[in-house]
Design goal:
With about 400 residues, this protein is α/β, with parallel strands linked by helices. Helix content is about 40%, strand content about 15%. It folds into 2 domains: about 20-265, Type I PLP-dependent aspartate aminotransferase-like (Major domain) (Aspartate Aminotransferase, domain 2), CATH 3.40.640.10; about 270-405, Aspartate Aminotransferase, domain 1 (Alpha-Beta Complex), CATH 3.90.1150. Helix 2 packs antiparallel against helix 11 (about 255-265) and helix 4 (about 75-85) packs parallel to helix 11 (about 255-265). Bound molecules: pyridoxal-5'-phosphate.
């Protein structure tokens, strides 16, 4: 597929608000067979009517699909809609967030280059940068999150980009986008931001001058805990580089999955608005609970990055991280007493999920190594879904009371 990306990002509704665009942007008003919803073009290949059609495509650059790995109409609509929502020139969708992240990184660096990444990035992203990039002669400096002096000093002549997340996992630290833009401009390096935890409802990094925005669509944007998908967004010239490598790496999202993504996107502003509200209510409830030691939520005045969060975000999102009083046994009793909230990784979906990083994502770390990362025995990350917030609070309250031996 030859991309005509700047054109295809014109929203169907034309300059409407985010919630309208989440439903209509990026697709023609009249669709196949006058279908209201987006057709799923379930095909691995596309045909040409005749030799002229081939030549119009290859020689004259006429829009035409060719082979599934190079593009699909259902995926193209998802890309156009996401680009519209994020305010980006272009977008490519992937089969997972990690596929988006690794393909993007590899398309922007060459052997001999250097990158800077903040230390509380997603575990698999850090692992990829630390271990695999080295194999290709790409050097990586991991800097402590929030220390902008150290970050700036880490930039060298061959540094290609700074990579960070905001908010981060699990402490929901906020990366100061205004500050990082100044540093990046001064040193002429690109800025890549994994914006999974914020979504374009709460934060639009491109408006702050970030070059590349990445999403695990698996979380809030698809929103129903039923698919894995990822996206990269940014200027056409950068995204085109990623798209080209994507065609070789092949981390394609299939058309049916794209349909589920598009369906999820329609309600994402509604869901995130509710999750912002419920997240804050749950955070405030936990903060006053006698069995709770500490709560981390960017829109709580007690959060270390509250000021930055209020400046660059619309809401705090649905993730609330907290530490309860007690020890590992207390933590297990608390988990076992939850009746409504499911125990499981992931976040951002309609079902509330709770995870215990020490027992799940970091089970293979020693206790000492975990504590160095701040992942204590009684730390939980709760992803608040869209259930009634009072039901969620009641579930948490009962389980907290029962956790006391
Ligand atoms: C989940 C997640 C990823 C990875 O995305 P997948 O869709 O699981 O591959 C990357 N970054 C962040 C911040 C995430 O939460």
């Amino acid at each position: 597929m030859r991309s005509k990306s700047s054109k295809r990002n014109k929203p169907a509704g034309g300059g409407k608000s985010l919630s309208t665009r989440a439903i209509h942007a990026g697709e023609p008003r009249t669709k196949y067979a006058d279908s209201l919803t987006t057709p799923i073009v379930q095909t691995s290949t596309f045909t040409f009517k005749n030799s002229k059609a081939i030549e119009d495509y290859t020689k004259k650059g006429k829009e035409h699909f060719e082979y599934g790995r190079y593009g699909n109409p259902t995926a193209k609509i998802a890309e156009a809609r996401l680009a519209d929502l994020e305010g980006a020139e272009d977008c490519v969708v992937f089969s997972s967030g990690m596929s988006a992240i690794t393909t993007t990184i590899l398309s922007l660096v060459q052997s001999g280059d250097h990158i800077v990444i903040t230390d509380d990035s997603y575990k698999k992203t850090l692992e990829f940068c630390k271990s695999y990039l080295k194999q290709f002669g790409i050097e990586c400096t991991i800097v402590p999150f929030g220390n902008y002096e150290v970050l700036e000093k880490a930039i060298k002549k061959n540094t290609r980009f700074i990579f960070s997340e905001s908010p981060t996992n699990p402490y929901l630290n906020i990366f100061d986008l205004v500050r990082i833009k100044k540093i990046a401009e001064k040193h002429n390096v690109l800025t890549l931001i994994d914006s999974t935890f914020s979504t374009p409802f709460n934060q639009r990094p491109i408006e702050f001058g970030m070059d590349v925005v990445l999403h695990s669509l698996t979380k809030y944007l698809a929103g129903h805990n039923d698919i894995l998908a990822g996206a990269v967004l940014g200027k056409e010239e950068l995204v085109e580089k990623v798209r080209n490598l994507h065609k070789s790496m092949g981390g394609l999202i299939d058309p049916h999955c794209c349909y589920l993504l598009l369906r999820g996107l329609k309600t994402f502003p509604l869901r995130v608005e509710r999750q912002n509200e419920s997240g804050l209510k749950v955070a405030r409830f936990l903060e006053t609970h006698p069995r709770v030691q500490k709560v981390y939520y960017p829109f709580l005045e007690s959060h270390r990055h509250y000021e930055i969060a209020r400046r660059q975000m619309t809401g705090g999102g649905g993730v609330v991280t907290f530490e309860i009083k007690g020890n590992l046994s207390t933590a297990k009793r608390f988990l076992d007493a939850l009746k409504l909230i499911y125990i499981g990784p992931s976040l951002g979906g309609v079902e509330s999920l709770i995870t215990h990083p020490a027992m799940v994502s970091y089970y293979d770390y020693t206790r000492k190594a975990r504590y160095e990362l701040g992942l204590t025995d009684t730390l939980f990350r709760l992803s608040v879904g869209i259930e009634d917030v009072e039901d969620l609070i009641a579930d948490l309250d009962k389980a907290l009371t029962r956790s006391k031996s």
